[in-house]
Amino acid sequence: xxxxxxxxxxLTTDHREVEELFGKIEALPSGDGQRKKxxxxxxxxxxxxxxxxxxxxxxxxxxxxxxxxxIADKEIEDHAEAERTMKELEAVGADDPEFDRLIxxxxxxxxxxxxxxxxxxxPQLRSAASEDELMKLGDKVRQAKKTAPTRxxxxxxxxxxxxxxxxxxxxxxxxxxxxxxxxxxx
Length: 186
Known about the structure:
Layout: H1 7-27, H2 33-64, H3 68-90, H4 97-128, H5 131-147, H6 162-181
């Protein structure tokens, strides 16, 4: 979290970190408790990443791309589907048969979303926005990830201004819960 560079570099690095966690999950046998640990870490990163994209990237997509509203709406719907899956995943242990189904579903959803962003959205944005604008967006995304929630909140608003107002409070509560339970810690 918080890598530096423009918004595209920042978010692409996040994608690689989540994919690395997915690889660790896939390398372990079904039922292994470490799979839940890695899944929790992936969910933490995915939620922070999604909140930052919804607060800053997608409004920029709407502003800079001629078909930006449609693209942003589709990306937000992708996030909503993944968030529902993450919420279900949060409730099951690695030894629960549902865990394998849900983590597989989440990996499929996220990998498809990442491919779409990296192959389509990011190149379009790089062409349409100036390097200065992309750098400013990178800074905003990094700041948003610092206060973002760490747990899925499927019923929370996913567009400005409500998401920008509510996310830091939910993030604080989530970080307190994580500290008390040890979630997301090595």
